[in-house]
Amino acid sequence: MGNSREEPPEVTSASFDDPDIAPFAGPEAAEPLVLDPGCYWRLRPGEPLDEVVELPRHQHNQPVVLFGGPGRRLTLDQPHGRRILAVPAYADGVPPESVAHKMVVIYARHRATGHINDPDRFLVVLNSTGTEMARLDFSSSWELRTDSLRRICDLAGLAFAVETYHTEAELLAARPQWTPAHVELEVEHPLEADIRDLGMALWWGTAIAICLLGGTGMQLVFGTPVRYAALTAAVGGLIVATVITAWTNVRWKKRRLGRQQRAATRVGQ
């Protein structure tokens, strides 16, 4: 009434880039307080920690962290398989170098190249000597909640840490032994990274055009004079992207092996 205006409701927003602020809103199921014998704690991207009675089937398209079971093991569902690790609290009869000792969650806020600026997010599991035993990348999915990961590590007897970097270049300078191959390429060879992305865009663009346009797309690619140019661009893009990716992986593995050998030499001295 009069000159009075209704005040807008106070809204609190959370930063999705800050690992210490949970990017979740709305009601959630309560996380389990204790791990029942024989059961598993399960953490999936964008969801709170829950408990399941049996070990779920491996899903290659979803990164998952599990802990528990008869042997109380830490399990990471990676794209190409499942990694099961012994932990300090339940490591009877396991050699020390085969026991997980620490979990580190890595965030790199800004990527070096490309128009996609989603942060790099992954975790690494280390043994007592600092050697990487396993890693789980969740850059292409929702975040894995750091508070829930810390609860898993506390129960398993693992040390836990979160490291945040503003750029991929800072990540590469600080942790070269943990930096993925594609990050090394984007930081040290941005032109080659852009060419790789362009090659894949040509390949997938042609395939998507055919799928979306149906018979029209097929006619455009295979029934007109431009078919040779379209097919050459698509296949050439795929070949170039494949060659650059293969070169990147070979170079990354060679450098990583060299770092491990130097580290082993320093330990031996």
Structural description of this entry:
The chain has 269 residues and is of the alpha+beta class. The protein folds into 2 domains: 40-180; 190-268. Helix content is 37%, strand content 20%. It has 6 helices and 9 strands; from the N terminus they run ββββββββαβααααα. The chain has helices spanning 146-156, 168-174, 181-188, 190-213, 215-222, 227-268; strands at residues 40-43, 50-52, 64-68, 73-78, 81-85, 102-110, 120-126, 132-137, 159-167. A 5-stranded antiparallel sheet has the order 2-1-3-4-5, covered by helices on one side. A 4-stranded mixed sheet has the order 8-7-6-9. Strand 4 and strand 5 (81-85) form a beta hairpin. Helix 3 crosses helix 6 and helix 4 (190-213) crosses helix 5 (215-222). The chain is globular and about 70 Å long. The N and C termini lie far apart (82 Å). Mean pLDDT is 78; it is low at 8-17.
Quickly list its features.
269 residues; 9 strands; alpha+beta; 37% helix; 5-stranded antiparallel beta sheet; 2 domains
